[in-house]
C-alpha cells in the first residue's frame, strides 16, 4: 500500500475516533478561550494595543493549546497497545506518523478557525481583507507546530510524567516558529496589511526542515 | 591512581595559571578596562559548550546508525559538559553586561539563542531521566537531540532578523577586527585550560555511563534467570540509582 493511501486511512481513523467524542477539540477550544479571557487582564484591550500585543497572544495560546492537545496523539494508543497493531500493519512508519500529524493539523486548524474570529471580536481587530492571507500564515505556523509536536508526542508517550514532558520538549523548539508567526501575523494587522516577505518564507523553511527530519527519523519513533 | 593525581594537579595548575594570565598578564582593554577580562573565560566556555553540543549531535546520529550503546553514553556525557559550560557562559555574560551595557540581560540574537540552546539540552537530559527502557532512552533521546540541534540555526537566524545587540565577532569578524597578540595568547591559554578540564571529565562521565549500562544489563539478566535450586541465593540491590540528571 502506498504511503499516502495508508496515511489517508489512518487520518480517517483518527478523525472518526475524535469526532465520536470530540473530547480533544472541545477541551482545546475551551482552553484557548480561557487563555484569551485571561489575557484581557494583562493589558488594556483597545484597538491600538491589541494590534501590538494581539498576534503574540494569539500564537502563545495556540502554542500552549498545541502542547496540551498533541499529548493524547500517541499516548492514546498505549491504553490497549494499539500501536503494536499499527506496527504490524504493512505500512511504512512515515504513514503512521503522517496520519497522526494530519489529524492533529485538522484539529488545531479547526480550533483556530473557531477562535480567530472570536479573538478578533473580543480584541477589536479587523479581519476584513486579510482573512485569506491570515489563513496562509496560520496554516504554515500550524503545520510546523504539529510536525514537531506529533514527533515529540511519540517520544514523550514512552516517558514517565509524559503530560508535563511534552511542553518541556516542544516549547523551546518552537521559539523560532513563534517569532516568525507573530511577526507575520502582526504585519497583517498593521495599518497597511502585507504578507511578510521575510517571515512567511521562514515559516515555510521551518516546516520543510522539520517535516524532512520527521520523514528521516520516523522509523525510530514507532519501532518496538 | 598516581597518574590521576599528577594529571589533576597539572590541570589545576594550568587553570590557575590561565586565570592569573587573564587577570594580570593580558593587557588592559581601552574602553572596558578590567571588566573585559571576564571575556577570556566567557568565550572559552562558549567554545567548549558548542563543541560539546556538536559532539552530542554526532553521537545521536552515530547511535541511530550503528545502535552501539557507546554512542549513547558519549551523547549524555557531552550533553552534561555542554550544559555546564553553557551555564558558565550564561552567568559570566550578564556579569560583564551589567557594567558595560548597563543591563544584565537583553533579548538579543546570540543571548536568546544561547539561552534556548541551554533549555533544549536541559530538556534533553530531563527526557533521558524520564525514559525507563535503556533502548528507548537511547533512540528517542537521539531523535530529540537531532531535532534540537537542527533548531539552533533557525533560532539564531530568526533572532538575528528580529533584533541584535551582542558585540560583533571580534576575531575573524572582517575589517577592523582582531585581538592584541598578548590577548590572543591569553585567550588561547584559557581555551586550552577549559578543554583540559572538560575532556577528562567527559571521559570519566562516559565510563560511568558505560558502567551503569553494564550494571543494568547484568541486573536484567539475573532477574530473568530461572531460579536454580542448587545455586547460592543472591540478593540484588534494587535501590542503587541507575541514572541521574545533570
Q: How many β-strand stretches of chain A?
A: 0
In round numbers, the mean pLDDT of chain A is 91
Terminus-to-terminus distance of chain A: 21 Å
Strand content of chain B: under 5%
Residue windows where pLDDT falls under 50 for at least 5 positions of chain B? none
The radius of gyration over CA of chain A amounts to: 18 Å
Mean pLDDT over all positions of chain B: 85
Approximately how much beta-strand content do the residues of chain A carry? under 5%
Number of helices of chain A: 10
State the helical fraction of chain B. Answer: over 70%
Count interface residues per chain for the largest interface.
A-B, 32 and 30 residues
N-end to C-end Cα span of chain B? 26 Å
Order of helices and strands of chain B: HHHHHH
Tell me the helix content of chain A.
over 70%
What quaternary form is this? heterodimer
Q: What characterizes the major β-sheet of chain B? A: none
Number of helices of chain B: 6
- Judging from the principal axes of the Cα atoms, what is the shape of chain B? flat
List the topology elements.
The complex is a heterodimer of chains A (224) and B (246).
Chain A: H1 3-21, H2 23-39, H3 47-69, H4 72-75, H5 82-88, H6 93-122, H7 131-156, H8 162-173, H9 175-189, H10 199-222
Helix pairs in contact in A: 1-6, 2-3, 2-6, 3-6, 3-8, 3-9, 6-7, 6-10, 7-8, 7-9, 7-10, 9-10
Chain B: H1 2-25, H2 39-66, H3 69-101, H4 109-130, H5 134-162, H6 181-224
Helix pairs in contact in B: 1-6, 2-3, 2-5, 2-6, 3-4, 3-6, 4-5
How would you describe this structure to a colleague?
The complex is a heterodimer of chains A (224) and B (246). Chain A has 224 residues and is mainly α. Helices cover 79% and strands 0% of the residues of chain A. Chain A is built from ten helices and no strands. Chain A has helices at residues 3-21, 23-39, 47-69, 72-75, 82-88, 93-122, 131-156, 162-173, 175-189, 199-222. In chain A, helix 3 (47-69) packs antiparallel against helix 6. Chain B has 246 residues and is an all-alpha fold. Chain B contains six helices and no strands. Chain B has helices spanning 2-25, 39-66, 69-101, 109-130, 134-162, 181-224. In chain B, helix 2 packs across helix 5 (134-162), helix 2 runs parallel beside helix 6 (181-224) and helix 4 (109-130) runs antiparallel to helix 5. Chain B starts with a helix and ends in a 22-residue tail after the last helix. The relative contact order of chain B is 0.14.
Amino acid at each position: 500500500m502506498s504511503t499516502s493511501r495508508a496515511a489517508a486511512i489512518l487520518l480517517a481513523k483518527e478523525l472518526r475516533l475524535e469526532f465520536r467524542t470530540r473530547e480533544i477539540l472541545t477541551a482545546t477550544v475551551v482552553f484557548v478561550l480561557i487563555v484569551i479571557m485571561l489575557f484581557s487582564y494583562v493589558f488594556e484591550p483597545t484597538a491600538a494595543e491589541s494590534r501590538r500585543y494581539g498576534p503574540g497572544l494569539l500564537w502563545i495560546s495556540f502554542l500552549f493549546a498545541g502542547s496540551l492537545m498533541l499529548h493524547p496523539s500517541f499516548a492514546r494508543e498505549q491504553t490497549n497497545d494499539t500501536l503494536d497493531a499499527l506496527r504490524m500493519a504493512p505500512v511504512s512508519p512515515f504513514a503512521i506518523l503522517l496520519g497522526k500529524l494530519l489529524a492533529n493539523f485538522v484539529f488545531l486548524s479547526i480550533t483556530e478557525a473557531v477562535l480567530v474570529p472570536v479573538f478578533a471580536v473580543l480584541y477589536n481587530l479587523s479581519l476584513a481583507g486579510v482573512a485569506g492571507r491570515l489563513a496562509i500564515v496560520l496554516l504554515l505556523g500550524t503545520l510546523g507546530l504539529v510536525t514537531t509536536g506529533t514527533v515529540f508526542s511519540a517520544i514523550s508517550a514512552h516517558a514517565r510524567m509524559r503530560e508535563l514532558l511534552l511542553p518541556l520538549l516542544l516549547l523551546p523548539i518552537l521559539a523560532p516558529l513563534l517569532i516568525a508567526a507573530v511577526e507575520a501575523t502582526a504585519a497583517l494587522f498593521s495599518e497597511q496589511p502585507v504578507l511578510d516577505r521575510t517571515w512567511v518564507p521562514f515559516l515555510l523553511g521551518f516546516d520543510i526542515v522539520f517535516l524532512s527530519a520527521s520523514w528521516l527519523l520516523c522509523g525510530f519513533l514507532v519501532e518496538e | 591512581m598516581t597518574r590521576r593525581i599528577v594529571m589533576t594537579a597539572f590541570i589545576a595548575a594550568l587553570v590557575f595559571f590561565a586565570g592569573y594570565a587573564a587577570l594580570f598578564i593580558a593587557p588592559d582593554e581601552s574602553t572596558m578596562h578590567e571588566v573585559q577580562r571576564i571575556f577570556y573565560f566567557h568565550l572559552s566556555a562558549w567554545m567548549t559548550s558548542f563543541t560539546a553540543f556538536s559532539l552530542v549531535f554526532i553521537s545521536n546520529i552515530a547511535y541511530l546508525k550503528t545502535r552501539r550503546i557507546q554512542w549513547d553514553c558519549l551523547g549524555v556525557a557531552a550533553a552534561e559538559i555542554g550544559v555546564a559550560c553553557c551555564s558558565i557562559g550564561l552567568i559570566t555574560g550578564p556579569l560583564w553586561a551589567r557594567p558595560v551595557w548597563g543591563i544584565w540581560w537583553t533579548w538579543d540574537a546570540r543571548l536568546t539563542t544561547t539561552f534556548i540552546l541551554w533549555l533544549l539540552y536541559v530538556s534533553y537530559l530531563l527526557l533521558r531521566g524520564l525514559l525507563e527502557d535503556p533502548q528507548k532512552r537511547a533512540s528517542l533521546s537521539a531523535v530529540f537531540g537531532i531535532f534540537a540541534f537542527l533548531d539552533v540555526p533557525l533560532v539564531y537566524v530568526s533572532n538575528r532578523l528580529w533584533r541584535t545587540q551582542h558585540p560583533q565577532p571580534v576575531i575573524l569578524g572582517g575589517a577592523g577586527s582582531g585581538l592584541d597578540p598578548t590577548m590572543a595568547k591569553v585567550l588561547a591559554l584559557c581555551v586550552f585550560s577549559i578543554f583540559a578540564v572538560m575532556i577528562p571529565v567527559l571521559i570519566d562521565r562516559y565510563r560511568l555511563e558505560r558502567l551503569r549500562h553494564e550494571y543494568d544489563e547484568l541486573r536484567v539478566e539475573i532477574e530473568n534467570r530461572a531460579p536454580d535450586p542448587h545455586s547460592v541465593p543472591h540478593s540484588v540491590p534494587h535501590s542503587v540509582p541507575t541514572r541521574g540528571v545533570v
